[in-house]
Amino acid sequence: MPYKWKQERVPFTTKAAKNRAYNKAMELKGTRYENADGLWLTIIYYHTGRQVDVQFDLSKSIRTVTLNNILNKKVKDMYLRTVFGIGYLGHYDKDLPYERKAKQLWQNVMKRCYSETDDKGYKGKVIVDERWHAYENFLIDIASLEGFNEWLNGTSYELDKDKIGDGTVYSRQTCSFIHQRENRQLQENYRVNKAFNVETRTWE
Fold this sequence. Notes:
four-stranded antiparallel beta sheet
């Protein structure tokens, strides 16, 4: 039967409270629940108060959540690959000032590379590096890319994979933010089969 929370009335510092906490931990450990997405999770550790650690069956990911959220089916698997079967959110800082803008950018990149219906996409031609399958990594990495501040403070800069890389991979090693005009020129150069020399920074 689903576990029903009973609030402690004795301070945790007493021996009796510690014993009850231990018994509760033993009672909860191994208890299984289903979330709103139909995914199963197992309680593997009990913290003090109302918090527990759970592990999801599918992704094997572990996170700390409240018992109330478990019972209300509000616990999501942040490592489930829900974006075109490739990308997942992970645990990220929602308070970063550029988080919302970054998420839209990441979703667009994943769409361009893996959508079956995007007529302007790169599916089969361009991939996203494994590290950037996780939005949590993408969010951190882009802050150190060349041109990040210009992208953050305006709308004329775009994430580019061609100037530094060979145009086939989106990654922290091959991407930078460049102005729209330069990006259009890069695309034109590729159309006429020019190659960018990374050492001399010129097109040949």
